[in-house]
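Entry:
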Amino acid sequence: MDAEETDRPVQLWFGARGDGPPFVLLHPGGTDSRALEPLAAELAGSYRVLTPEQRAHGHTPDPGGPLSYATMAGDTIAFLEREVAAPAHLLGYSDGAVVALAVALRRPDLVRDLVVAAGVHHHSGWAPGVLEDQAQVPEFMVDAYAEVSPDGRAHYGQVVEKLRRMHAAEPAFTDADLAGLDVPVLVLLGDDDEVRLEHAVAMYRALPQAELAVVPHASHGVLVEKPGLCARLVTDFHATDKPATFAPRRRRAEG
């Protein structure tokens, strides 16, 4: 399979629920949209929640070739053009956060605003040992993959190896890349996350329209551990009538 075939967008399987403005949620790597179920259930009363599954994940088959954030972003862009056809609220979780960030950088016209949940903008942003630990895949993740994947249980090892290679060198966005993203962004993570807190703060500072939320007593599973609180943080972030803060520093010149 040549590079052109590998990079050609694939049609992503997706779930949909609720009514309201479109809100697209992108799942973590190595799993599928079920990882977003607790948050999606909280949001469905206010939004039309769409949960596409990336190539080689969940119900979407592996078309072959390596995995990359750029390729998955291309698939997601095609999904947004086909299924939403208007600027959407976009949230990505872990690897999904990197895909969402890549989408926003490439096609900001498709993104109303962005939530980067427990994600990095550079592969150096993971805490020491995190990427090495990913080589030990829990059996429940293999079981979950086998339940829905059209490629079968035995293929999961190939997906894990593709993710390992991707994580070794990606993502590699710079502060200058982030500074050019002129859409509102909420950087959200747990206080005991696999993402280094210093990295998340650097992301927040580099983005021109960013807000930062560090959820207490939460890990990399923050959206699963505290879905109600995270949903409240997200809907507050989306509000169009935010009051002025009492003693702003970064946002001092706004308004």
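The chain has one domain: 3-238.
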